[in-house]
Write a structure and sequence with these properties.
Chain lengths: ~110, ~110
């Protein structure tokens, strides 16, 4: 079993829909990261969180430490949101070495 | 722009050859991480350096080596290249907990 599991693996939705991507992990963490990788390959850090909820524009990330679960939400989705979204967790005892989920490939159709 | 630079952007070479990938971290960041992303696979952690010293090792092959120099830039050396080494190689630097990614080097081994 992978230490970081993401679901779904692939998600296709229509423009405007509310999107939820889930991440579950099985280890103790210092922080959880959500990252975005566009088709060109570049990786952008979206959020780093260790508790509660963070919001940036149309993106919202939540984490439940007790349940070892995080969600990334996209409101009013747009075709430019099409990308791979990756969840990664930082291990406190390993100087923030990240363990990566497999990623969720999101396609938003106009 | 994350502040992390990587060169070259693209590299095409032949099997058996040796290449060097370069990474300059964000100003002030002491940690550099190297990741490999093969086609249709998630990111694999290769190695971490902190202020010139190797801090953590992941799934790095013996044919691969890295170092971090006094000016904190890092180089990843890949030798005896095989077709399966074709991948995107990312470096990231970190300050407190969060990692910032370079644009990646796309290596193609023919």
């Amino acid at each position: 079993k992978n230490e970081v599991e993401q679901s779904p693996q692939n998600l296709t939705a229509q423009e405007g829909e509310f999107i939820t991507i889930n991440c579950s992990y099985s280890v103790g963490i210092s922080a959880l990261h959500w990252l975005q990788q566009h088709p060109g390959g570049g990786i952008v850090s979206l959020f780093m969180l260790s508790s509660g909820k963070k919001k940036h524009g149309r993106l919202i990330a939540t984490i439940n430490i007790q349940e070892k679960h995080s969600s990334l939400h996209i409101t009013a989705s747009h075709p430019r949101d099409s990308a791979v979204y990756i969840c990664a967790v930082g291990l406190p005892q390993f100087n923030y070495q990240l363990i990566w989920g497999a990623g969720t490939k999101l396609i938003i159709k106009p | 722009d994350s502040g992390v630079t990587q060169t070259p952007k693209h590299l095409i070479t032949a099997t058996g050859q040796r290449v060097t990938l370069r990474c300059s971290p964000r100003s002030g960041d002491l940690s550099v991480y190297w990741y490999q992303q093969s086609l249709d696979q998630g990111l694999q952690f290769l190695i971490q350096y902190y202020n010139g010293e190797e801090r953590a090792k992941g799934n790095i092959l013996e044919r691969f080596s890295a170092q971090q120099f006094p000016d904190l830039h890092s180089e990843l050396n890949l030798s005896s290249l095989e077709l399966g080494d074709s991948a995107l190689y990312f470096c990231a630097s970190s300050g407190w907990n969060e990692q910032f990614f370079g644009p990646g080097t796309r290596l193609t081994v023919l």
